[in-house]
Amino acid sequence: MLHLRAICPPGITERAVALLREHAGATHLVLFRGAAVEPAGDVIEADVAREAADEILAALCGLGVDRDGGLTLEQVDTSLSDAADRAEEAAPGEAADAVVWEELVGRTGEESRLNTTFLAFLTIACLLAAVGVITDSPVTIVGAMVVGPEFGPLAAVAVGLVRRRFDLVRRALLALGAGFPLAILVTAGGTWLGNYTGLFDASVISGDHDVDFVYEVGPWSLVVALLAGAAGMLSMTSAKSAALVGVFISVTTVPAAGYIGVAAILGEWDKVARSAGQLAVNLAGIVLAAALVLLLRRNRSAPDIRERPLSRG
């Protein structure tokens, strides 16, 4: 279940209440007249079945609630109610299969923003990958995969392409286009410092190592990226976030970026090129698979979200 709160101008409150009262997928309807201060109006609260959320949001937006008031959705972790059970049974489909497009756009829009936190996580992840490469430690490489925040912008690109939200695509590409070069540059600086002080030399990446999979690009790199992108988008659209951890440790985006910084300083230009190829294949594969999943799950009755500006919060 999702908890819906709507701030309604008094002139449309009755229609909004009637809409929610009549919809089989809504329950626990509450009305607080005059409770909203800014924007002024009435506050309506209800619990809605996830599979009915898009239809209800579309209807409320059709009344102008989003323009003159406001709509918020929150996940309900536990609901002990026969009325809630009946609402979920009456709503068509299964909750796990429902895509709430407004929620998805908002989530990916937030996770694709270029900010200090995103840059810090990506840089730390690449530095961890560099340590894993230098010490030949697959465990450290896996840690770098988990820390990396790059799936958010990649998911945002897929959502933006499918929903024609090119403002979302631009935001995500800016984050990726600025984040990866900066992280690689910082990693290269750290590698230069370690090499200059004698902590290691070029021999650490010569010969065979357990972490050579990072730059060994091939058909399986694309297969893994496609599967990971599909699993990641399924996880985001079904609110099963636990599966995202498996996605993070399946793809070699961050390790490949970290390897680029290490190999460039140590003069292994062939490995630089191969790592760059690995990075490109993984990025493209994830976006392609995520977009295909969204196309397959697209609900044509979803509210039109193409013109709604992204939050700056």
Architecture overview:
This protein has 313 residues and is of the alpha+beta class. The chain has 2 domains: 2-97, 2-Layer Sandwich (Alpha-Beta Plaits), CATH 3.30.70; 104-297. The protein has 13 helices and 4 strands. It has helices at residues 10-22, 53-62, 65-68, 82-90, 101-111, 116-135, 138-147, 151-162, 166-196, 219-237, 243-248, 253-265, 269-297, and strands at 2-8, 26-37, 40-48, 70-75. A 4-stranded antiparallel β-sheet has the order 2-3-1-4. Helix 10 packs across helix 13 (269-297). The model is unreliable at 300-306 (pLDDT under 50).
Please mark out the parts with pLDDT under 50 across 5 or more consecutive residues, or reply none: 300-306
The strand line-up of the biggest sheet is 2-3-1-4
Categorize the overall geometry.
elongated
* End-to-end CA span: 25 Å
Q: How many domain modules? A: 2
Write the layout of secondary structure elements.
Blueprint: E1 2-8, H1 10-22, E2 26-37, E3 40-48, H2 53-62, H3 65-68, E4 70-75, H4 82-90, H5 101-111, H6 116-135, H7 138-147, H8 151-162, H9 166-196, H10 219-237, H11 243-248, H12 253-265, H13 269-297
Antiparallel strand pairs: 1-3, 1-4, 2-3
Transmembrane segments: 117-135, 141-161, 173-193, 213-235, 242-267, 279-296
Keywords: Membrane, Transmembrane, Transmembrane helix
Protein name: Putative hydrophobic protein (TIGR00271 family)
